[in-house]
């Protein structure tokens, strides 16, 4: 393989897609991600813990869970919109009630999904929550690749997640309203028999087109 970084495992979650075979069908254009804000059930997490989670936090936790084991693996978390639904509700509360709930604010910050994932799964490898520079998905994976090639770690977990946007924001997307989706990649310097080389996305690629290319390139969604 003519590469220096390898994808050893891949996980993915989106409404209406279940299992590796359906993800392959999606990548081939034969199945669609559906609308929905319920999220994964996270039956492995404590019920009191998961009842407060947003959609993006649930998706991030599921993607990390399906990449396990990750006990000492650092997570690089990327999102274009973060906790956009919670942020909308925080802004609405400020405008309409001139007040702010501390609990709502604490769960609306950009790093909330990955922080909650480490808590839910007992992960101790640390994390970085980074917005993709210049609104470019390719820069996010370039940063993750650089961490490995620069000697930061032998393996890292790359997790991308974005939820559906509130209806009030849909007009900003010119009819191309984003779907809810999360996926994770276990990236490593060391190849194994099931890995594929990491191919950085082109500048015009978005997370969905990158995931499709990766699945069609030979990877299967875990578990």
Number of helices: 8
Could you name the CATH class? Answer: Alpha Beta
CATH fold annotation = Peroxisomal Thiolase, Chain A, domain 1
Strand content: 15-25%
Q: Which series of helices and strands comes N to C? A: EHHHEHHHEHEEEHE
**What number is the mean pLDDT?**
88
User: Taking Cα atoms only, what radius of gyration do you get, to the nearest Å?
Assistant: 17 Å
What is the count of distinct domains?
1
Principal-axes geometry comes out as: globular
The main sheet comes to: 7 strands, mixed
CATH architecture annotation name:
3-Layer(aba) Sandwich
Span from first to last CA?
Answer: 25 Å
Estimate the helix proportion, in percent.
25-40%
Structural category:
alpha/beta
**What is the fourth-level CATH superfamily?**
Thiolase/Chalcone synthase
Unreliable parts: none
Describe this structure as you would to a colleague:
This protein has 223 residues and is of the alpha/beta class. It has a single domain (6-222), classed as Thiolase/Chalcone synthase (Peroxisomal Thiolase, Chain A, domain 1). Helices cover 34% and strands 17% of the residues. It has helices at 19-27, 47-50, 55-65, 84-97, 102-106, 112-121, 137-149, 207-216, and strands at residues 6-13, 74-78, 127-130, 155-162, 181-188, 196-197, 221-222. Strands 1, 2, 3, 4, 5, 6 and 7 form a seven-stranded mixed sheet that branches. The relative contact order is 0.25.
């Amino acid at each position: 393989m003519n590469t220096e970084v390898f994808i050893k495992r891949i996980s993915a979650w989106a409404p209406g897609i279940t299992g590796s075979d359906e993800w392959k069908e999606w990548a081939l254009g034969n199945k669609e991600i559906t609308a929905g804000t319920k999220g994964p059930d996270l039956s492995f997490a404590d019920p009191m813990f998961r009842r407060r989670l947003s959609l993006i936090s649930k998706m991030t936790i599921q993607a990390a869970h399906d990449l396990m084991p990750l006990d000492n693996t650092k997570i690089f978390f990327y999102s274009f919109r973060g906790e956009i639904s919670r942020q909308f509700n925080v802004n609405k509360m400020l405008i309409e009630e001139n007040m702010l709930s501390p609990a709502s604010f604490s769960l609306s910050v950009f790093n909330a999904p990955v922080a909650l994932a480490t808590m839910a799964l007992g992960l101790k490898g640390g994390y970085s929550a980074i917005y993709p520079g210049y609104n470019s998905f390719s820069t996010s994976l370039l940063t993750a690749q650089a961490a490995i090639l620069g000697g930061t770690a032998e393996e890292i977990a790359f997790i991308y997640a974005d939820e559906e946007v509130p209806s009030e924001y849909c007009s900003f997307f010119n009819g191309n309203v984003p779907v809810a989706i999360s996926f994770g990649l276990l990236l490593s310097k060391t190849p194994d028999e099931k890995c594929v080389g990491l191919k950085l996305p082109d500048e015009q690629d978005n997370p969905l087109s990158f995931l499709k290319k990766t699945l069609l390139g030979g990877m299967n969604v875990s578990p």
